């Protein structure tokens, strides 16, 4: 079925899901039919396979899984049976092809070169089956050591396995220099002259006071309906006046410089062309977390390549901005009201913008003028902080599963604690010393094999408390096993500056949290 598909393929250690969500939402806003495949699934197996943001119906998912399983059994291949993930990948590609999607945004499951999703041909269609137009390599770090590589360079090499000759390659800013150099070296060998190195592109994470959408008088935006839960707290907003944006320029400068292994002299592979006009655009950043600026850069240049080189002409600047405003990626730095704890996490807003998604707009519309604005970005647009209730009512949820992700989560938590302290002091509800005495209550569960010590050392600071909990077995993921809460407690046994407690069920911890009355602890 993949012979019908045009694909954006996304690999990396962290950020893959956010990039897929941003790219998909912008393409949907441009009125393309978009298939999106993420892994692992969020709540139910069918939610990993979506068209226009809506999961494949559960009964259709079950029917296709059974059909594919029966086909697999009848083949009696010498290589054995398909894994559960291979069957789900085949299902996704089949469903996308049957529904004639214009483009599919595919997230790599594990690694890249040997991943089940790595089955697409070149962008020109001359080699292989299906057309992989753009390959995005998100930040690479040491995760799944021993499975896809024994060091960072081997892991980077594995993830670069999705690159295709003649396709466009977007390399995210890499914190690990070994990963960056390995990825760049391989990219130049595979598709020279078609590489965008995000590290080289000027971009600024900033507050824009009078944000306005680019001209879009000729664009009919699709209406998007989102559920409405309790609005997130004002202190979860990005601090300062205005709306948080990434100011970025295009067209990008191409990464065309390469030092061959056997030469001491640099080779310039580009051909001199007239300098194009540089355009500056403000991209709304509604997904929380400092790292989302980097994900937005990768997503934007992916979309720019699609419209510039592959004929996706409906991707206008305003379309990208609206798509970035409407994006949803639940479970990643998402605020939940404890009062809504019995409702599904999948319908939880992940940013204040979820309360008023953009359905339509006129040319030059200015956001931020009131609480009903889809881009309300200042804390003044939210209800005032109640210093006695705000910490009790909320829990911050995230799926940080490795040390770099844990570091980003802690950075966001520290920023939020500073905002609360500042607002309490400004509102004269606490003196300076009392206002700063805030700690975190971490409700944590781990899957077997994770580096608990490294992750917890990143997260837990003196004065914090840790509640260790188990989790239920994820559907269709038999390889995922839950770490015992007792082992989590044992991992923290040497920490005398924190409080640790274990629970038999997650629901017990949540109910205890709901019964607590504390204005000194933030729930995460």
Report the total helices: 13
Average pLDDT reading: 83
Shape: globular
| End-to-end Cα distance | 42 Å
Note the beta-strand portion. 15-25%
Characterize the main sheet.
8 strands, mixed
Output the radius of gyration: 23 Å
Number of strands: 19
Structural class: alpha/beta
Strands ordered across the widest β-sheet: 4-3-2-5-1-6-7-8
Contiguous uncertain segments of 5+ residues: 262-267, 344-388
Helix fraction, binned, reads 25-40%
Keywords, separated by commas or semicolons:
13 helices; metal-binding; Mur_ligase_C_dom_sf; four-stranded parallel β-sheet; single chain; 524 residues
Write up this protein.
The chain is an alpha/beta fold and 524 residues long. The protein has helices spanning 16-29, 58-75, 84-98, 152-159, 177-190, 292-309, 317-326, 390-393, 403-426, 432-435, 452-459, 485-491, 506-515, and strands at residues 6-11, 34-37, 49-51, 54-55, 103-107, 131-137, 168-171, 195-197, 203-208, 243-250, 257-258, 267-268, 279-284, 334-337, 394-397, 439-444, 465-468, 499-502, 521-523. The protein has an eight-stranded mixed beta sheet with strand order 4-3-2-5-1-6-7-8, with helices on both faces. Strands 18-17-16-19 form a four-stranded parallel beta sheet. β6 (131-137), α4 and β7 (168-171) form a beta-alpha-beta unit. It is globular. The two termini are 42 Å apart. The relative contact order is 0.11. Residues 262-267 and 344-388 have low confidence and may be disordered.
């Amino acid at each position: 079925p993949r012979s019908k598909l045009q694909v954006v393929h996304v690999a990396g250690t962290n950020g893959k899901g956010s990039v897929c969500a941003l790219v998909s939402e912008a393409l949907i806003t441009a009125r393309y039919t978009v298939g999106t495949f993420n892994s692992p699934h969020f709540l139910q197996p069918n939610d990993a396979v979506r068209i226009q943001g809506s999961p494949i119906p559960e009964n259709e998912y079950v029917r296709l899984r059974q059909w594919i399983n029966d086909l697999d059994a009848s083949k009696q291949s010498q290589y054995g049976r398909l894994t559960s993930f291979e069957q789900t990948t085949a299902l996704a590609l089949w469903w996308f092809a049957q529904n004639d999607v214009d483009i599919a945004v595919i997230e790599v499951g594990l690694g890249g070169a040997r991943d089940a999703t790595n089955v697409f041909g070149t962008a020109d269609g001359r080699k292989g089956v299906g057309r992989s137009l753009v390959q995005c390599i998100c930040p690479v770090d040491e995760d799944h050591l021993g499975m896809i590589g024994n060091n960072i360079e081997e892991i980077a090499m594995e993830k670069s396995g999705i690159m295709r000759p003649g396709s466009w390659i977007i390399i995210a800013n890499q914190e690990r220099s070994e990963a960056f150099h390995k990825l760049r070296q391989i990219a130049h060998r595979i598709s020279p002259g078609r590489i965008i190195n995000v590290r080289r592109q000027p971009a600024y994470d900033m507050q824009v006071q009078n944000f306005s959408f680019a001209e879009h008088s000729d664009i009919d935006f699709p209406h998007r309906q989102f559920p409405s839960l309790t609005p997130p707290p004002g202190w979860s907003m990005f601090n300062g006046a205005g709306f948080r944006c990434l100011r970025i320029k295009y067209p990008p400068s191409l990464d065309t410089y390469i030092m061959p292994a056997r030469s001491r002299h640099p080779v310039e592979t580009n051909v001199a062309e007239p300098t194009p006009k540089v355009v500056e655009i403000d991209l709304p950043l509604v997904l929380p977390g400092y790292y989302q600026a980097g994900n937005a850069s990768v997503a934007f240049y992916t979309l720019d390549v699609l419209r510039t080189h592959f004929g996706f002409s409906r991707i206008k600047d305003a379309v990208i901005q609206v798509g970035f405003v409407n994006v949803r990626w639940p479970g990643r730095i998402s605020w939940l009201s404890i009062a809504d704890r019995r409702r599904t996490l999948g319908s939880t807003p992940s940013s204040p913008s979820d309360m008023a998604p953009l359905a339509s707009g006129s040319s030059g519309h200015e956001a931020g003028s009131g609480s009903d604005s889809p881009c309300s970005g200042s804390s003044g647009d939210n209800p005032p902080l109640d210093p006695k209730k705000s910490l009790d009512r909320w829990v911050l949820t995230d799926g940080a599963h490795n040390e770099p992700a844990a570091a980003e989560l802690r950075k966001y938590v520290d920023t939020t604690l500073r905002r609360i302290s500042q607002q309490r002091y400004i509102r004269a509800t606490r003196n300076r010393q009392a206002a700063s005495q805030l700690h975190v209550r971490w409700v944590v569960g781990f899957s077997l094999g994770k580096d608990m010590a490294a992750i917890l050392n990143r997260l837990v600071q003196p004065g914090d408390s840790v509640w260790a909990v188990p989790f239920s077995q994820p559907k269709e993921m038999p390889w995922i096993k839950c770490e015992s809460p007792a082992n989590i407690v044992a991992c923290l046994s040497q920490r005398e500056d924190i409080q640790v407690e274990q629970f038999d069920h997650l629901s017990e911890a949540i109910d205890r949290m709901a019964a607590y009355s504390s204005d000194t602890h933030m729930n995460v």
